[in-house]
Amino acid sequence: MTFVVTENCIKCKYTDCVSVCPVDCFREGPNFLVIDPDRCTDCALCEPECPARAIVAAEDLTADQAHFLALNADLAGIWPPISASRPPTPESKDWDGKSGKFSLLER
Amino acid sequence: MSQPTVSKRSICRICTNQCGVVIDLEGDQIVKVKGDASHPLSKGYTCPKGRALGAAHQHPAAIRRPLIRRNGSLVPVDWNECLDDLAGRLRRVIDTHGPNAVGFYFGSGLGMDASGYRMGDTFYKSLGAPPRFSPLTIDGTAKVLASSLIGGFPGLNPKTDNDNVDMLLYVGVNPMVSHGHNTGMFNPAVHIRAAAKRGAVWTIDPLFTETARYSTRHIAPYPGKDYAILAWLTREILDGGPLNLAQPVHGIEELRTALAGFDRAKAAAIAGVSESELDDLLAAIRKAGHVVIETGTGVTMSSSANVTQWLSWALMILTGMMNRKGGVWFHPGFLIQFDSFELPIIDNPFSPGAPTMPDVSGIIGDWPCAALPGEIAAGNIRALVNFGGSIIRSFPDANVMAPALQGLEVNANFEIVENETTALSTHVLPTKDQIERPDISFWDTLCGSLSMTYSPAVVEPMGERRSAWWAISQLMKRMELPVPEHVPGDDKIPGADDAMLATIMAGARCGFDELQAARHVTKPMEFPGRWVDQHIERFGGWRLAPPALLAFFAQTRTADEAAIGETRPLCYTSRRQRRKLNASLSFLGSPADIILHPEDAAANGISHGQKVRVRTSRGEILLTANVDAGIRRGVASIPHGHEIANVNYLTSTERVDKMTGMVLYTGVPIEVEPVAA
What we know:
- The complex is a heterodimer.
- Chain A has 2 helices and 4 strands.
- Chain A is low in regular secondary structure.
- In chain A, strand 2 (26-28) and strand 3 (33-35) form a beta hairpin.
- Chain B is of the alpha/beta class.
- A 7-stranded mixed sheet of chain B has the order 5-4-19-18-17-6-7, covered by helices on one side. In chain B, strands 29-24-28-25-27-26-30 form a 7-stranded mixed sheet. A 4-stranded parallel sheet of chain B has the order 11-10-9-13, sandwiched between helices.
- The A-B interface holds A 19-20, 22-24, 39, 41-45, 48, 57, 83 and B 19, 32, 34-35, 37, 43-48, 50-51, 176, 187, 189-190, 193, 210, 213-214.
């Protein structure tokens, strides 16, 4: 199994999750992170680190979130790795918790 | 121009799990540490502490040269000068006051250095049996006690069969952060979630921990009162099952008698939980037909540790979970093969203790750590050899510990990073850190498999650091103590460190050469282990009702039953943090906070983020309020191991378990008040 980054990461992209990942499985896009499911060890260390609560175990994805499993896998094959956390941007907090962000995802 | 990055495989020796890591180096600079996906056990997993190995190695306060106190200050000297001076001073203490005037602390620093620890033990034994201290009496004596009294051997350490368990009860343990209490658990979330999926995982803890988050249910009792839950469960199992004995038992009727009248209402009132929660837990156990219980420092640091641990074993024995699939297994040892000989019956773990604490005995050769300041004050201990322990941050009552250390004639510390304990030293001996030395997984029986791992050194030792075994053997030579013939005269001889490791593996399940070539060797393990069942049969069965524990229970129960309905004071529990390892890794930034329930915070006029003065009868510290409804009302949680906000300014050398000398670090009453900004 794997953990999956879901919608609330979009435009928040805090990156707190990145520093705890033992296998560097995060990939970074313009305004969203994804987890490479082939590298994820399912250790759950990243899940509580996310201030936006955007990281979810694959088996716990709701029906609305289910499509993020494939999206993470697809984008992980395209986006470059990120292995160090960065300070949040001024906008991170503003976007945290906003609904309907999926259309804002930049690929 | 930057140097090319070189990746080297090693093992993390921060805890006994020893996850595989890959260390990226640019020259001698560590630029990154990550999990080793090729490691057969950890499979890429490391925790944030393991990923901090590079920062720990490159710590700005790293000690690079031996130090000696001169005119009140520590000054750098060469090894010969340091060892000559230290040996001379120790010899003078021994000649004047006898070898028992030298105390030894076997701290976790050298505790994870296989050859250093072994040579330290040789040094200690060469002086006879002087005062010996270790983390045992500040971490958990109840496990050794229960193992001896119930199982007839102090080293039986039950480990959950994580691949098959389907009814798991975590009591006062948070493996998501600790990786189990001496049980060895890689990637804990995977195991916890899998067990919950197979059946159920319940967590009993005053705090909604990271482990509780992945559990099926969480019950939050008052600290130190979790025994009441287990006592009621045991009585119910005895009366209504499921009773399924896998091995012979002794004392079942005495146990039944001891628990008579301990009903649900009483258990709920003492533990501070609801009767319906107890009903649900019992129903879950009855549905599964058995229960596996893991405990941790939430239990062992409490006043009821001995009975809680005992009852956890009793429940597993009664439901047939000892040494059985889906239950717990016992490590047969890799370095010493416990299944290759008749295990001796050792049902008395007690040993002579400290003269200044006559009502507290020693345990398996250890004196209570709480006795150290008193022994120094009495002039009994005049020299201390500290093998890598942060004494002021980990021993009880830092208010008296720091002045006591200053009263020593000799205070020698084997340490690699400056701290408040080294600051009080007469001698500081910097030995190779974990990535500067080759090593093996020395604490084999604390690992989660029948395996052994080897790692070569990853970098050259910084400054003038030397191998710990070499420094100790040189000290012994200068003191005219016998050094074993196999010990090389110089750690700089190629292969000398490995030669020392090879001697440790003389009776192991594989040779050192095989291990060195393979890096990791796992042997097939018989499970259930016949050696365990045979030992228990020779012992006459598990002893369910050891008289000492019955008496402890009766005393605890009587006091608690009498106190039902009384208002309880706010008290604190101790916790380990995700980005901190007890007294070390402070640089990772885990805050010195106090978790308070919103109602307790409000009742004391405290807001989230505010500075809080925390006080006991022994002292006070300042912590930052972390107001969180995840903790039960009436309880606060304080992390251990912080330097300024040292929880040991709140603890006491007198608040110890009289049976085993264990210091009480949980369930201690406190007063809190906001501090004006």
